[in-house]
Write a sequence for this structure.
């Protein structure tokens, strides 16, 4: 694979001497993180994951000659627009996405998006004819993957997907029918893909047993990995939880555990927003050791990490589909060089257990006891474990490193090198 960079992506820059260089297309719902696009349908975490991945894969030499995207907008009448026009937007300097036009009505929206993507992919394949080609779709539902699959097969292009939101039932029961429809097609399609990038290995094991797939559970921006000195000794011991305040993130479990800890030197700092924000406010009002910060900027959150002794990732693991979930916030925690508590979500204990303290019994009593245990652990021992985690993240889990891995894997897929793709997927992170 060429290591040279490209100046642009999302445009057609084929040159005669590049005929054997893979051409890539991205199909997703990625948009610029700007006020115009921050509607009810905008999910910053997923959007940023695609933006970072695209930027770093391009920097690693994979040429994206087409980026086709969906503007996040709830269907009419929840969304105020009945027709979503197609247009070109800049994702970051030199990289452009073509927004797919579609009628913004329930059901018809998905069909129209699928048809728009289908013809966009065929046009892209024709413009890049004679070159090895790979289509990468972020998840399989927007637009429906069957349209992308048909376009890939008709055009002779390879087809890969980033499978980050798959197999997890929706919170609202009235969405269950469409979840079952999506899952029915996913279980028949994923094994037919030419490449797979998965957030947890359980997705690969259950949806495409025996097939190769690259495990990318997220990444952190190398610029935020600190070189902080150890926290100086203080009279208090600070725990921190930041993120969405909802049941799945263990907010209620944490508050119940904190009630069992009568140590007056403990502090609990909570930041974020969500369904349980009123519960957090009530707890802060009742216990002066608890402080709720509201929704902070990323820079403010990083400062909160710096002032903390322990960062808490209490993602609950019980229930159908939870093994397919992985909290990307956990990777940011590990990069901070601070003590981390995590549940045994997905592969957290297997890959990261030597760097974090793992809560295996998700009860208030067990969490309270683990906090007491960490409080008794010598500072030097805790700092050594935290520093090892920080080094591991810097070596293996930056966006640059993950982008290099994804670019190499997708290039092998585009070239039809299944053995090489499988070898790259099987590489083990460095310690």
């Amino acid at each position: 694979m060429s290591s040279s960079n490209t100046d642009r992506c999302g445009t057609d820059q084929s040159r005669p001497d590049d005929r054997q260089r893979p051409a890539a297309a991205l199909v997703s719902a990625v948009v610029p993180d700007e006020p115009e696009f921050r509607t009810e349908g905008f999910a910053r975490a997923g959007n940023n994951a695609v933006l970072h991945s695209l930027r770093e894969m391009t920097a690693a030499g994979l040429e994206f000659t087409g980026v086709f995207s969906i503007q996040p907008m709830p269907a009419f009448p929840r969304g105020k627009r009945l027709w979503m026009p197609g247009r070109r937007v800049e994702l970051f300097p030199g990289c452009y996405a073509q927004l797919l036009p579609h009628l913004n009505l329930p059901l018809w929206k998905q069909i129209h998006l699928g048809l728009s993507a289908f013809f966009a992919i065929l046009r892209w394949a024709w413009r890049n004819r004679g070159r090895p080609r790979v289509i990468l779709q972020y998840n399989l539902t927007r637009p429906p993957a069957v349209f992308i699959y048909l376009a890939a097969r008709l055009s002779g292009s390879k087809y890969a997907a980033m499978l980050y939101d798959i197999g997890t039932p929706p919170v609202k029961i009235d969405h269950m029918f469409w979840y079952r429809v999506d899952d029915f097609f996913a279980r028949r399609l994923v094994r037919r893909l030419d490449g797979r990038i998965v957030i947890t290995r359980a997705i690969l094991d259950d949806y495409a047993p025996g097939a190769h797939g690259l495990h990318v559970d997220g990444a952190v921006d190398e610029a935020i990995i600190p070189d902080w000195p150890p926290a100086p000794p203080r009279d208090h011991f600070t725990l921190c939880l930041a993120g969405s305040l909802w049941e799945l993130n263990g907010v209620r479990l944490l508050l119940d555990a904190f009630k069992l800890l009568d140590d007056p030197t403990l502090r609990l700092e909570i930041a974020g927003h969500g369904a349980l924000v009123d519960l957090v406010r009530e707890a802060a009002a009742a216990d002066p050791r608890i402080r709720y910060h509201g929704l902070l900027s990323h820079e403010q959150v990083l400062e909160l990490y710096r002032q903390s002794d322990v960062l808490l990732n209490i993602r609950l693991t019980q229930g159908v589909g939870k093994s397919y979930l992985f909290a990307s916030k956990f990777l940011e925690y590990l990069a901070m060089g601070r003590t981390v508590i995590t549940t045994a979500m997905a592969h957290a204990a297997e890959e990261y257990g030597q760097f974090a303290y793992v809560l295996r019994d998700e009860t208030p009593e067990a969490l309270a006891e683990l906090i007491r245990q960490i409080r008794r652990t010598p500072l030097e021992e805790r700092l050594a474990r935290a520093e090892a985690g920080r080094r591991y993240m810097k070596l293996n889990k930056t966006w640059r490193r993950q982008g290099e891995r994804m670019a190499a894997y997708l290039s092998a897929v585009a070239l039809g090198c299944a053995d090489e793709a499988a070898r790259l997927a099987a590489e083990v992170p460095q310690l």
Notes: The longest strand covers residues 63-69.
